Amino acid sequence: MVAERVRELIAGAAQSRSFLIGGAITLALALTAALSLLWTPYSATAMDIAGRLAPSSAEHLLGTDQFGRDVLSMLMVGARNSILVSVIAVGIGIFIGVPLGTLAAARGGWIDEAVMRLNDFAFAFPALLTAVMITALAGPGAVNAMVAIGLFNIPVFARLSRGAALGVWKREFVLAARAAARSRLAITLDHVLPNIAGLLLVQATIQFALAILAEAGLSYLGLGTQPPNPSWGRMLNEAQTLIYLAPQLAIYPGLAITLSVLGLNLLGDGLRDALDPRLRRGR
């Protein structure tokens, strides 16, 4: 049922230019990350001091960095690391936040109040600063970055799923199901989740983009993906001292981050337009 609603949403969104452009950019990002699992022009961690800061050429399409590493290979592997961290972080938010939100909507009372007060407490702290604090206390690394970013996603999905579910619980077909003595769990699985799946998918694309930005920010600060594994954020950090000598070392990862976030936001816009035909723009 949920999968069917998602397919219907994507089919409707395919009529939007925003969705098509965002989908193309996101697909290119995913294919680049998948390709890096099988092939890269060079090892992303191999150094060649004699060939350091080489310009773009047939041998190195995007040149080399200050350690002689191939920039294109580093960008490809960095895409893989960014996607991995973001997928797991958003997954944490969905698989914990959505059950909490739907539980609060289904049960109400003190359970609803407790979930919402926990959400308010989580939102009282800026997301990136909270992630920095967690990774600083737990230690730098990709795993801790996933957990830190994922913890912020939990209240986002909990609040969204609760608000959307409350609206579904007032619908006539849900009232009919309750009159037929169906359990709250059955109603949630059969009626509530399928009707809020579209909203959750749109929010997931937005949070995915934010997770890529957060991972890049943590890596820039040295709290995310650790050497020798490439990361777009750490590539920016390493390039800042060479900004006048080799500005392309900062341009390439910055452009990768920008395109990834732009693609995901356009994808989310297209999905949002499909949910509300009044918002459709690029027909």
UniProtKB/TrEMBL annotation:
It comes from the Bacteria. The chain crosses the membrane at residues 20-39, 83-106, 118-137, 192-222, 242-268. GO terms for cellular component: plasma membrane. Keywords: Cell membrane, Membrane, Transmembrane, Transmembrane helix, Transport. One of its GO terms (biological process) is transmembrane transport. PROSITE patterns: ABC_TM1. It is found in: Cell membrane. It is a multi-pass membrane protein. Residues 79-268 form the ABC transmembrane type-1 domain. The keyword Cell membrane applies. InterPro entries: BP-dependent_transpt_permease, MetI-like, MetI-like_sf. Gene3D superfamilies: MetI-like. SUPFAM superfamilies: MetI-like. PANTHER family: OLIGOPEPTIDE TRANSPORT SYSTEM PERMEASE PROTEIN APPC (PTHR43386), PEPTIDE ABC TRANSPORTER PERMEASE PROTEIN (PTHR43386:SF25). Belongs to the binding-protein-dependent transport system permease family. This is Peptide ABC transporter permease. It comes from Rhodobium orientis.
